[in-house]
Amino acid sequence: MPKVSGLEVLKVLKSDERTKLIPVVMMTSSKEEKDIIESHQLGVNSYVVKPVGFENFSKTIADLGFYWLVVNNTPH
Which range marks the domain in which residue 43 is found? Predict the structure, then answer.
């Protein structure tokens, strides 16, 4: 994202009472352990490294959608 990092957006979302319970999936190209740790410390619900290639990316998005919309239970 230009000008604002995903971690900055995550900090804002998780610090606001109105949005802190919204599940957040961090989708990034970084496989760095420090980025994974920081994301979880800030409250990310899932950390996914973007797969290479359109077909793999599309399948990952479909799998994530199924998990978060059908399998996972969140507070209402």
Answer: 6-71
